Please model this.
Amino acid sequence: MTRPASAPPTAAAKAVRSSRKLSTATTGEQIAKQLGQAILQGRYAPGERIGEQAVAEQYSLSRGPVRDALRILERQGLVEIRPRRGAYVIELALNDVADIFNVRCALLSLAVRYLAHNPDKSGLVSVDPRLDQLRRLAAQDQPSLLDFAQATGRVAIGLLQACASVKVIQATYRDLPHDALWRMLWVTPQPPDYVRPVRRADTFHAYEDLLVAIRAGQADAAEALMRRIMTETRDEVLHYMARPGTDPIDPFRQQVY
Model:
């Protein structure tokens, strides 16, 4: 008896398989990234149900990894899992975006203080190539804005990894919907302020000064630079995302840092 031919993999399934080859992320994490991007880009409406079976068929997978992905998205605040009903998309309000950046700011501020106070600076060796990549992109006349945004993220991740706090700082940071948010923002026709060459140069120099302060053991200066980087990005993203009819942001969320 001949077995029926398998259906060709969808483009989404191919994307996940391709990214798995280049990443240590689990299948569930890869699916969560794809779904998170779709949610933030508006391909799933607020309140819309994301069916496990439909997603499993889309990616040519069993329902297990899809279930894992939905749990990740729930931790990230993008979906709500209702018992016996499934996962539903949560609208990402401006207050939520501010909270994401403020949590980032708190975690990264702690990380750079650890690094500045730690006499062993060997962990920073892995950050230097990431800063070099950011330097090269900042020097280009018209770099990909998504590439530039992700390069800033890689410097931040490098700092988190160098501070060697795996269980608390890195784990908490990883659960924030960074990549999906960046892709939604920087592939659109009118991206935030990284479009200006001077803004890109300022961002690179701020990270460059941050590394100098950390190596010099200047914890207060390093934290101040980290907070400046994060709050400037937070405020430009919030300004960009504000639309007529959207709920206004609570002013105090932009005053804590």
Residues 1-7, 19-23 have pLDDT under 50 and may be disordered. Residues 192 and 236 are 6 Å apart (CA to CA).
